[in-house]
Design a protein that fits this description.
The chain has 266 residues and is mainly beta. It has one domain. It is built from three helices and 18 strands. The longest helix is centred in the last third of the chain and has 20 residues.
Length: 266
């Protein structure tokens, strides 16, 4: 991805195997393209391995999403694996906002994400994880979901996020995720994400999603570098995504004068 005049554009695009990537869509007048990753096979199976490599060059910007939820089915042949590498040059920007990851009964899914970014680049990585249907109707019957994210800023490892859900090790049913069914996560690394920005995000979420017995449970943690990590426990994909989108839209409006994300346009 490179800057070309007033907008960003793909200078090289390649796919092979099960994954496909659709042509760029420019949803607004800012010149930021949105790319959609498609899995025509419909889901991940045991032993599957997927890789995504994105480079955003100096001053360029992109939004990466998926066409539908990522479904991980039974994996008796071994875990399904996904590797993501994101490289961000000086002043580059990446927003990764995939649809939910749904893990079904007896599924294992291991995702490894490595980000190499310049100190003045901007990163936002979103994830929503939930369980799929099981024959006995019990939730959280998958074996494991592991999302490991490493962010290197310059030459230094700045963020290490290791999110692991193993229902059989940590309880099941009502004991998982404080009784909620969905986990939302947002990792932001950006020079503007200072203490003041973190306070503003917390105030926004407290106003938009007040703590109630049946509403989303939300927490925001300041990182050692400019940035923050958000976790949301919710009872639906829509609720988890609403928390994430509220923060993403605030960032877009406050930092770039850009409108909200509307993936329905893609």
């Amino acid at each position: 991805m490179a800057r070309r005049g007033s907008r960003s554009a793909a200078v090289r695009q390649f796919h092979a195997g099960s994954l496909r990537i659709l042509r760029a869509h420019y949803a607004d007048g800012t010149g930021q393209p949105a790319f959609t990753v498609v899995n025509p096979g419909g889901g991940y199976l045991g032993g599957d391995a997927y890789a995504t490599h994105v480079t955003v060059e100096e001053g360029a910007s992109m939004l990466l999403t998926t066409q539908s939820a990522t479904k991980v089915y039974r994996t008796p042949q071994g875990p399904a694996r996904a590797a993501q590498i994101f490289e961000l040059g000086p002043g580059a920007r990446l927003e990764s906002v995939p649809d939910a990851l749904i893990a079904y009964r007896d599924a294992r899914y291991l995702q490894d994400t490595l980000v190499e970014m310049a100190p003045d680049a901007s990163l936002a990585l979103a994830e929503v994880v939930t369980h799929g249907w099981s024959p006995d109707g019990e939730p959280f019957r998958f074996e494991e979901v592991s999302l490991v994210t490493r962010v290197r800023v310059g030459a230094h490892l700045a963020v290490m996020d290791n999110l692991v859900i193993r229902p059989r090790d940590g309880g099941a049913g009502a004991l998982m995720l404080a009784g909620r069914s969905h986990l939302g996560s947002l990792l932001v690394v950006d020079p503007r994400a200072d203490d003041g920005a973190v306070v503003a995000v917390r105030e926004l979420l407290a106003e938009r999603f007040p703590a109630t017995s049946d509403g989303p449970l939300v927490g925001v943690t300041r990182l050692a570098v400019p940035g923050f990590a958000l976790r949301a426990l919710a009872d639906s994909t829509a609720d988890a995504e609403a928390v994430i989108r509220a923060v993403l839209d605030w960032m877009r409006a406050s930092w770039r004068g850009q409108g909200p994300i509307d993936l329905r346009k893609l």
